[in-house]
Request: fold
Amino acid sequence: MYTQVSIPKNGDGAGVPIPKNPTIIVIDVEDIETEPTRSVGDVTMVGDYELKEGAKAIGVYATPSTIEVTEENSGDPDARGFMVGVTFEHPGNTKEIKNFTERFANRGVVIITRECNGGTRMEAHGDKCNPLFLTTTRTATKDANKRQFVFKQEMNSPYVSGDYTGAVPELAAEPAAEPDAEESI
Reply:
């Protein structure tokens, strides 16, 4: 429930960018058993993301300087809402990132981003009923070998990104390192 309060300046440097943790947490909405609740006018999310038995979230490395969280407000009178999104770049073209790209091309997700440098604030983007969907671009040129991931809601929502205070879901294990070609001879 919204409580009216005056909003003073946050202090000097309030608009300085806040570094993000480079691990983007991606949760397939099909894996969510229960999710936190909230109400319009209160961004605090109550509860944890509880995943179905055996399900795990995926940690995806993002080049820190490329992480962007977006919130766009639009709509007809009496139907204005928000579309939230998360954009980032991932370096390289490993088998794992290619598999991830194919797997999530048509799957809805919730994404959790976290502050870095000792910050504890986490934000959750999307929900089971209005998840984020992926569009991606690959660049393989003389200047770069990377993928850009854009996750965005397809429908307006009454919510901006929520302040998530719950537990981070268990992350899938990283792939085992492949033996060096010379070591296997």
